[in-house]
Amino acid sequence: MRPQPLICVRDVEASSHWYQRLLGCQSSSGGHGYEYKRLFSNGRLILQLHRWDVGHDHGPIGDQNLAHGNGVLLWFEVDDFDAAVARAREMQIEMTHPPHRNPRPNHWECWLRDPDGYSVVLASPDGSAANP
């Protein structure tokens, strides 16, 4: 099994560039021009982006007037945690929780807010944080 999360966004192209820059991933059109994108890292699908107001053959996916991703974290384990945090700072991304050590998995985390208000977590691999 492989998770393939999909989120709705206002501007697919802008969100695609935001995630590519932050995560160092690549975009591949999922079809329909600027209405849908798929993001890949090392050849594996990590995230799909879909425009709110496009229903295609399945109808609307969600209601853009409700809180975006309330209670959902888009969690990305990254091998280059320090570099990813540096990119987030360079991009002036809102950090809801600055870099900190999570003792349970013994890794580093940084919680961010994406352009549509979704919570995004960057995390180093489990066991990668030095003990205090």
Explain how this protein is built:
The protein is α/β, with parallel strands linked by helices and 132 residues long. It folds into 2 domains: 1-56, 2,3-Dihydroxybiphenyl 1,2-Dioxygenase, domain 1; 70-132, 2-Layer Sandwich (Signal recognition particle alu RNA binding heterodimer, srp9/1), CATH 3.30.720.110. Helix content is 17%, strand content 36%. The chain has 2 helices and 8 strands; from the N terminus they run E-H-E-E-E-E-H-E-E-E. A 4-stranded mixed beta sheet has the order 1-4-3-2, with helices on one face. A hairpin with a 6-residue loop joins strand 2 (26-29) and strand 3. It is globular, with a radius of gyration of 15 Å. The termini are far apart. The relative contact order is 0.19. The mean pLDDT is 91.
